[in-house]
Design goal:
single chain, 217 residues, alpha/beta, Rossmann fold, six-stranded mixed sheet, four-stranded antiparallel sheet, 7 helices, 10 strands, globular, binds adenosine-5'-diphosphate, binds magnesium ion
């Protein structure tokens, strides 16, 4: 199968400090890769580079055979969806957040689709009209996740999205992600510290001091 991403000699520097160094990495379409490593080692920076939220200071990122920076960002970000470590909701209600993916595609908000998405992560459909300030951390995390999934992306970049979820909710999110990977062929790159997620990894890589080491299980 073809590589959906080919990353070569990727580096990222800020204020003269090398945060990522010489990363070579490939991922095939439909693969599920888990990324672990110590805090501050550059994991989020790596996903943010893949997500075009940061620009590499050296090396290159090829997405589906094209240079990442040759693809219009708006098009690219619909295909490569990044879920933040700290969920960031905007506006006033849950609906404000779930309407956004429709707005950027010039589509009418599909209330039923949004309600089904809420139910898929064990949130009641009435959540749609809830004020975001009334949500717990775990609820915000799930709303942020489904906001990324209302339109299925080709690649899902997950930055510690199960941190802070209770065991049952974690299981629901695991099943949802596994299902996207298995049934919809979504390529997944997921950062985690969770031992159970690491032990279930299809392929595990670690980032340490800004360098990547491949660990195959
Ligand atoms: P991880 O996700 O593995 O915990 P990060 O990618 O968030 O690590 O950060 C890697 C390193 O880069 C850390 O030492 C962090 O302090 C530093 N860093 C991240 N963003 C910036 C920034 N905008 N300016 C300066 N240093 C940064
Ligand atoms: Mg991080």
């Amino acid at each position: 199968m073809a590589n959906i991403f080919t990353v070569s000699k990727l580096g990222y520097q800020i204020d003269g400090i090398e945060i990522l160094k010489n990363i070579d990495f490939t991922i095939e379409e439909g693969e599920y890769v888990t990324i672990s490593g110590p805090s501050g080692s550059g994991k989020s920076t790596f996903l943010r580079l893949l997500a075009t939220l940061l620009t590499p200071t050296s090396g290159e990122i090829i997405f589906e055979g094209k240079q990442q920076n040759d693809i219009p960002k708006e098009t690219y970000r619909r295909e490569v969806s990044y879920c933040f470590q700290q969920p960031s909701l905007f506006g006033t209600t849950v609906q404000d957040n779930l309407a956004f993916p429709f707005e950027i595609r010039n589509q009418n908000f599909d209330e039923q689709k949004a309600e089904l998405a809420l139910e898929s992560v064990d949130l009641k459909s009435t959540f749609l009209h809830k004020n975001i300030t009334e949500l717990s951390g775990g609820e915000k995390q799930r709303v942020a996740l489904i906001r990324n999934l209302l339109f299925t992306p080709r690649v899902l970049l997950l930055d510690e999205v199960t941190t802070g979820l209770d065991a049952d909710t974690k299981e629901i999110v695991h099943k949802l992600i596994e299902n996207l990977n298995q049934k919809k062929d979504v390529t997944i790159l997921a950062i985690t510290h969770d031992e159970s997620e690491i032990s279930l990894a299809h392929r595990l890589v670690t980032i340490k001091d800004g360098r990547m080491a491949g660990v195959t299980q």
